[in-house]
Design a protein that fits this description.
The protein is α+β, with helices and mostly antiparallel strands. Helix content is 26%, strand content 38%. It has five helices and 22 strands. Strands 2, 11, 12, 13, 14, 15, 16, 20 and 21 form a nine-stranded antiparallel beta sheet that branches. Strands 1, 17, 18, 19 and 22 form a five-stranded antiparallel beta sheet that branches. Strands 3-10-8-5 form a four-stranded antiparallel beta sheet, with no helix packed on it.
Length: 356
């Protein structure tokens, strides 16, 4: 069924300007209005499901050494720069362990130097055949043992220094604190949870889709997050990952969408509408510029044999600069390509044709 709407609002405007509505203008009198033909075109067929936004970077930091918390600079909802101190522990034991390891390293270095010198002397004497082979072998063994002890002492210093570094916990990336598990003055042990946070940069979306549509999603590998109900504003996913297994209870699959930089504005934990491309189908298409909105009425200017008529239409999804027409037009009809130009032309005195 076709819907036609006379442009009453324009007639009121003309009357307000003191003009009388002229008679209907034939098509031949409106050559200046560019028109386009309503044609069937391939339009994407999409299925829409709800998805949940999450941050790509999200982590819970745990303690890697024992100590007492003496500093917690950030609280929940605070923005944290990358590398900033988020937890600091007492380091008395770690400092003592490091000094002990450094002392052992100095002793091992001295022993290694002595063993190297003894080996050099013994080797020179042995080459002149002045000492027995057994004495030379003992010098080699002492040298090798001293070298091994020196390597162990170096490793102990590095381990002690690492334990000291663990008393200061730093943010791995720019983010926001979402939860604190400890308070200042609390003693912690290795493995205890300290603080959770999420990155404020890259975002992704997780969607659960039914088994019946997984093959089409894998085939077309295209999806977008819809930012408004009609899909005019959308964020196209840079990558679509379909998990290779289904939930045994619901028989549904999880799909993860990687988003470009513009997706960083989405809030983690919120739900969004996600449209997946599952095929194409023929649809009547008109340019978005041809559509005019009058209160709750959506219409286009249609060219008829006796002039121009404003006709109500029911639209579907938007695809770039084209809109689907579900009702109100037939294939082959012509519409004014620029609704604003039609309004201006009619305002100059041309009368709309009677709607049919």
């Amino acid at each position: 069924m076709l819907y036609a709407l006379p442009i009453a609002s324009l007639l009121v405007l003309v009357a307000a300007c003191g003009r009388e509505a002229p008679s209907a203008v034939p098509v031949s009198a409106v050559p200046q209005l560019a028109t386009v033909e309503v044609v069937l075109g391939p339009a994407p067929r999409e299925r829409v499901w709800d998805g949940v936004v999450e941050a790509v970077n999200q982590a819970t930091v745990s303690a890697q050494t024992a100590g007492r918390v003496i500093e917690l600079p950030f609280d929940v909802d605070d923005k944290v720069p990358a590398g900033a101190v988020i937890v600091r522990f007492t380091d008395v034991e770690q400092q003592a362990a490091l000094r002990q390891a450094q002392a052992q390293l100095r002793a091992a270095t001295a022993a290694a130097d002595e063993a190297e010198a003894d080996y050099t002397r013994t080797q020179n004497i042995y080459e002149r055949k002045l000492v027995a082979r057994a004495q030379y072998d003992q010098a080699v063994a002492r040298r090798d043992s001293a070298r091994a002890a020196l390597q162990a002492a170096n490793a102990a210093v590095r381990a002690a220094a690492q334990q000291l570094d663990y008393t200061v916990v730093r943010a791995p990336y720019v983010g926001v604190v979402t939860r604190r598990y400890v308070e200042v003055g609390e003693s912690v042990r290795p493995g205890q949870l300290l603080i959770s946070g999420i990155g404020i940069g890259a975002k992704r979306v997780n969607v659960v889709v039914p088994q019946s549509d997984v093959d089409a999603i894998r085939l077309h590998h295209s999806a977008a997050v819809l930012l408004d109900p009609d899909g005019t504003r959308r964020i196209t996913a840079t990558e679509v990952t379909v998990f290779p297994y289904a939930d045994p209870l619901t028989h549904s699959f999880q799909v993860r969408l990687a988003l470009p930089e513009e997706g960083a504005t989405l809030n983690p934990g919120t739900t969004v509408k996600v449209a997946f491309l599952v095929g194409t189908e023929p649809r009547l298409l008109v340019p978005a510029s041809a559509v005019v909105q009058r209160s709750e009425v959506t219409a286009v200017y249609v060219l008829q044999t006796d002039g121009v008529v404003l006709r109500q239409v029911r639209l579907g999804h938007r695809h770039g600069d084209q809109l689907e027409v579900h009702a109100g037009l037939r294939e082959g009809e012509r519409v004014v390509a620029d609704a604003a130009a039609a309004i201006a032309w009619l305002a100059r005195g041309a009368a709309p044709a009677s709607g049919r």
